[in-house]
Amino acid sequence: MKILKMNLVKMQQEKENYTLRTWQTEDAASLAQYLNNKNIWDNCRDGLPYPYSQEDANVFLSMVQAKENIQDFCIEVNGEAVGSIGFVPATDVERFSAEVGYWIGEPFWNQGIVTDALKEAINYYFEHTDKVRVFAVVFEHNSPSMRVLEKVGFKKTGIFRKACYKNGRFIDAHHFEIVADEKLVGNKDL
Ligand SMILES: CC(C)(COP(=O)(O)OP(=O)(O)OC[C@H]1O[C@@H](n2cnc3c(N)ncnc32)[C@H](O)[C@@H]1OP(=O)(O)O)[C@@H](O)C(=O)NCCC(=O)NCCS
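That is the input. Now the predicted structure with coenzyme A docked in place:
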């Protein structure tokens, strides 16, 4: 089986109000500035450090840069790294799927940026990897994130009751997925 590799070291797509690109070492300060926010952390897994320091940002950026393929995208606005879209490939029989996670700094909420950036990132990911399915897990209270996924074309596949425990309480997890269109899947050289 041939695994497709993204041999590109960098990608950059400039849009009207933001740029989607790969991470750079110099992003640590603005990454820490925007991600050190409890309103973001409350919607993410506990594996994300909070408070989020510049040292945490340095660790993240080193990890991203050590990866063989591009799995992590930076959302840049006005020259600052203000958001993130990251893919985590699944393994074993699910190895052609990946989970996606994303956030953007609070000053940039509700400007349509993540919806547009996620569309771009998913198209890029399907085109440059062997993945045919991307899924996302959203806490029950996170209506903006569900709206983003719906606008991008994800379908809700189910609600896993009390599947997550966050901030001292059980939360239902809403699962979403998007599958690469058949033409694209058919063209993959697996
Ligand atoms: C979720 C998040 C990434 C959305 O990013 P964004 O750039 O603000 O998203 P967009 O502007 O593209 O779209 C947001 C949509 O949610 C809608 N929305 C906002 N608040 C809402 C609410 N309380 N209830 C329902 N919809 C809401 C907006 O109106 C918009 O939909 P519309 O275009 O139909 O009007 C951002 O809020 C964030 O970073 N949140 C914290 C981290 C997080 O939740 N990450 C996802 C974990 S699964």
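The CA atoms of residues 2 and 29 lie 39 Å apart.
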